[in-house]
Amino acid sequence: MSKYDFETTIDRRKTDSVKWDVADNELPMWVADMDFKTAPEIITAIEKKAQDGIFGYEEPHSDYFNAVADWYGSEHGTRPKNDWMMFVTGVVPAISSAVRRVTSVGDNVLVQAPVYNIFYNSIINNGRHVLSNNLVYNNYDYEIDFDDLESKLAEPLTTMMILCNPHNPVGKIWSRDNLERIAQLCNQYHVTLLSDEIHGDLTFGAQYTPMFSLDESLIQNLIVCVSPSKTFNVAAMHAATIIVPNEDLRSKVSRGINTDELAEPNSFAIPVTIAAYEHGHEWLAELKQKLEENHRLVSEFLSAELPEVKLIPSQATYLLWIDTSKVSDDSQELAGFIRKETGLYLSAGNVYGGNGDDFLRLNIACPTETVRDGLNRLKMGIKKYQKG
Question: 2 pLDDT exceeds 90?
Fold first, then answer.
C-alpha cells in the first residue's frame, strides 16, 4: 500500500512553470522537472516557515550541514565531514563560479559528451574552451575511453574536468574503479575535478559512489556539487551544497561563491533541505518504485510498438536516452517534427554533444496516464516521420 500519491495529475499550466509553458495540445516531457508533488513533509516545513511571517537575512548552521551529511551516510553509506561543505544557491551557479575561480580565461575544461548541455554554457560563457573526452557507444552502452581521457588531461591548457556522476543524459552510474581512475589521472596532471552528483539519489539496480568517498589521497583536488532539487522536485527553492575536502581549494571556491553572491539562502532553502534529508527517505523509496514502473512501461512499449527505436539501459535519473538512429540522424529535426505533429515535446539529443544527434531524451517522472499519452504520441510522430 503506497503512502504517497504519484498518480494524481497536477495542472501546472499558467503557473510560471518553465516545463508547462506550452500550447494547450502539447505534452512536455523534456526538462528535468517532475510532475509529482514534492514530499508532504517538505510542504509542512514550508508552511511552518511561512507562518513565521518574517523573511530576513539567513545563513545555514550545523543543523543544515548535519542533515546533508546524515543523508549521505544513511542513503549512500558515506558521510562527508561538515567542514567540507558550503551552502550555495544551485549546482549550475556553483559550477560556473568554480570555473571562473579555479581556471583561467582560455583554459580547457574537459567534459564527457554526450553530457548535460548547461555544462557547455558554464564553460563557454566564461571564456574557457570545451574539450570533450567523448564517451564510447557500443552495443547500447557507453564507456570511457581512458587513453583519450589521459591525453586530453595531459594537455597543459586543461585545468578542470567536469564529471557527471551519475551521468545525464545516458543514465550511467560510474563504477568505483572508473571514478578512482579518473581521480588518479586528474591528480597526475594537476586538473581540478568537479563532480556534479545531482542525480545521485535517483538510482536503480547499481550503487552510486560519491566522489568524496574515495581515498583521501584522491580527493584533494575535488569539488562535489549535490542538491535535493532533482530528488524532491524543489529546484525553485535554490538550495545546493558544495563539498570540498581540501582546505586550500575550499577557500578558493568559497571566495568565488561569495564574490558571485551565491552563498545566501532564501527563506525556504534551509528548512526545505533539512526536511527533505531528515524525513524524505520513505518518499524517495516510493518515488523510485514509481520510476522503475514507468521505465518498464516505456521499455515494453518500445519493444512491442516501435522496435526500430532502442531504449538505452539506464541505472540512474528519470531521463531516458532513446536511440533513434534508425529513424533519423538529425535529432533536432526529429524532435521538432514530433512536437509539431503530435504536441509531444522531447529534448533533442544534439544539444548534449557527442553522438547526441542519434538520440532523444524522455522525462518519465510523471503519472502513468501521462507516460502512456507520451508513448502513443511518440509512436504517431515516428510513424508519420518515416512515411514523410
Answer: no
DSSP H helical ranges for 60-145: 62-76, 91-102, 118-124
What's at 372, amino acid-wise? Answer: R
Enter the C-alpha cell of residue 51: 507562518
pLDDT, one tens digit per residue, over 253-292 is: 999 999 999 999 999 999 999 999 999 999 999 999 999 9
Residue listed under C-alpha cell 495540445: 25
Domains of the chain: 27-40+281-387 (3.90.1150.10), 53-279 (3.40.640.10)
Nearest CA among 14, 15, 6 for reference residue 370:
6
What span, in angstroms and rounded, lies between the C-alpha atoms of 354 and 351? 9
Average pLDDT, the chain: 97
Q: Which residues have C-beta within 8 Å of that of residue 41, sequence separation ≥ 6?
A: 275, 276, 279, 280, 283
CB-based contact 120:109 (threshold 8 Å): no
Pairing of strands 347-348, 85-88: unpaired
Q: How far apart are CA 170 and CA 291, in angstroms?
A: 16
In sequence order, the β-bridge partners of residue 201 are none
Report pLDDT digits (tens) over 88-121.
999 999 999 999 999 999 999 999 999 999 999 9
Element (H, E) at 242: strand 240-243
- Assess contact for 208 and 165: CB atoms under 8 A: yes
Q: Are 260 and 231 in contact (CB under 8 A)?
A: no
> By the 8 A CB rule, do 234 and 272 touch?
yes
| Cα separation values, 150 from 1, 48, 155, 159, 184, Å | 50, 51, 9, 13, 10
Alpha helices in the chain (DSSP H): 40-52, 62-76, 91-102, 118-124, 146-153, 176-188, 229-232, 247-259, 269-279, 281-305, 331-342, 368-387
Cα distances from 272 to residues 58, 215, 262, in angstroms, run 14, 31, 18
